[in-house]
Amino acid sequence: xxxxxxxxxxxxxxxxxxxxxxxxxxxxxxxxxxxxxxxxxxxxxxxxxxxxxxxxxxxxxxxxxxxxxxxxxxxxxxxxxxxxxxxxxxxxxxxxxxxxxxxxxxxxxxxxxxxxxxxxxxxxxxxxxxxxxxxxxxxxxxxxxxxxxxxxxxxxxxxxxxxxxxxxxxxxxxxxxxxxxxxxxxxxxxxxxxxxxxxxxxxxxxxxxxxxxxxxxxxxxxxxxxxx
Length: 228
Fold this sequence. Notes:
- By secondary structure, this protein is of the alpha/beta class.
- The chain has 8 helices and 10 strands.
- The chain has an 8-stranded parallel barrel with strand order 1-2-3-4-5-6-7-8, surrounded by 4 helices. The protein has a two-stranded antiparallel sheet with strand order 9-10.
- Helix 3 packs parallel to helix 4 and helix 7 packs parallel to helix 8.
- The mean pLDDT is 91.
């Protein structure tokens, strides 16, 4: 499918740390917000209770997503319940059985399965998850490491594999991993994703940077306009 046939590329700003950052992202043009509630914790993570205080204050047309490294359907569903988000981003390559179970536990919550693109073997995961999730998100983590990397690496991956993933996927696909205002236009032209997702590329000293954010969104909209 050609995910880029939508009217514009969706923009998801991740690692939201406060209501102020959420409002800044929305006011600048973000379509979706991501809250990292994963283990191991880092400067990017936020307490689930704090997320639960923010989500009721977000306009309903803005998607809110909890990012979790949990690997069982029960744990993932509990994270959604605790945070009140409209979506969940599953960072680990969970089993297809748990993915199916999650679709039964939270059928009304949008489920994004992250695929960490390390090789062409990532393409084999489309059929594994497609029956049970609503969208994919391609990232540059390394979940098999002793201390798993689930994203926020600032690294790009092989966009030619991501482009093939988009062509084969029956579901919308978000692109993440090392995106910046400088490279996002090229990434969109090559991969043609449904949406883009980033954290570190629009931050300075871990804080959301209004200039970088504005530059990033302008770069996305520029390629959207020129591709029409």
